[in-house]
Amino acid sequence: MNSGDDTRPRVEGHHARLRVLHVSWPVQRPERSRGWWAVDATTSANANVAVYSTFAGVGFFAGSINNILGPKLTLFIGSMGYALYVGSYLATNIHPHAGAFEITAGAILGCCAGLLWTAQGSLMMAYPTENQKGRFVGIFWAIFNLGGVVGASVSLGQNFHSTTNSVSNGTYIGFLVLTVIGVGIPMFMADPKKMIRTDGTKVVAPRQPSWKTEIYGLYLALKTDPMIILLFPMFFASNWFTTYQFNDYNAALFNIRTRSLNNLLYWLAQIIGSLAIAVLLDQPRFTRRFRAFAGWTVLFFTVFAAHIWGYFYQKQYTRATIPEDSQKLDMYDAPYIGRVWLYVLYGALDAMWQTTAYWMMGAMSNDPAKLAYFAGFYKSIQSAGAAGVWRADAVKLPYMNIFLSTWTLLVGGLVFALPMIYLRVTNHTEEADETIANMDLNQHPGTVEAVKAA
């Protein structure tokens, strides 16, 4: 097999994975941004509690499920919940008392999303070489947010001439069609077992021996790499802030067409933010350890810049001063400009946070099986935090309390991540790390030599 043949499966597999996410994620956005979709804010928040509660439960074990079923089937099953979820929006838009269906659909989506995100995350971190991991994460996050750009553009086009606070049925129907199309796309993805990295090394595919072995592998991943626990606070914070940004800032302050424009700009900012931080994290002029500290520093200053700015806006309103049925801020109003630029910064920060978190996990291992566990930990703990903050929003906790909790958790996540970077991130990953993927039926990890001989 020549070098062209070796690299073709890798490229096809990478882009096929990105295509499924590109089609599926315009409608994945409701999972994270219910504020501008919702008929009723309380039902919206409770549905998100359902999403993230089941997401957290399934996500913790999703790495084991992915290693048994394989990423293609895991992605296929994981993408099924989104159409049902979008359908629940349409149902509640037509029948406002269908909130129970919306919450149930959210619980089902959480199970599916746990599988989808874990499979995606493990491949995204395992396919690239060590000096390409930031680029791969950045490219994924950019294409992922192209889905958000499409979604926000459709909503803006549908609602541009409306100054109300509601979304049309046509908007939901458009997204429903896109989700249904996206369900089957993972089955066209190239077989990960055939992937060859650009440096000629083989991607080690899990042997998928048994459920017992997979559960042991989950334990082994924590035992052999306990430093991952220091990233758990960073994981916990990684979706906490979206509740404030979407429900307590965007939905609270702006009318529907302005929210749609804001989200278009937010997703564009995410594309820029993810690619910008990816360039830094893969900068060949610096060692990997230096890049890790540099990425941490950029996040630290961006967190403080965004939240010092946001604090001065948050002081100006409460739940009592802007009830849900009040007149909202429009894009042509004078106070809009400063507030939308803050929202753009929030979007860039979100992308940089997620990209850096994935990059840090990727810097700890090249083993797809271990990375599947890490991705599962990430999405599980992230979702546990999101479930908590969406519940806090549902019971009408003051906006300022949620804002300050967001700021505190982001800073705390960075503080805990710093010793992990110092103690665990090296300039190169040892080959001996790629062992969990080849554990045999007797729960004995395989050797690198055995992997290369396979």
UniProtKB/TrEMBL annotation:
GO terms for cellular component: membrane. The keyword Transmembrane helix applies. It is found in: Membrane. It holds the Pfam family UNC-93. The keyword Phosphoprotein does not apply. The chain crosses the membrane at residues 73-91, 103-127, 139-160, 172-190, 227-244, 264-281, 293-312, 340-359, 402-423. Keywords: Membrane, Transmembrane, Transmembrane helix. It is a multi-pass membrane protein. This is Major facilitator superfamily (MFS) profile domain-containing protein. The lineage of its organism: Eukaryota, Fungi, Dikarya, Basidiomycota, Agaricomycotina.
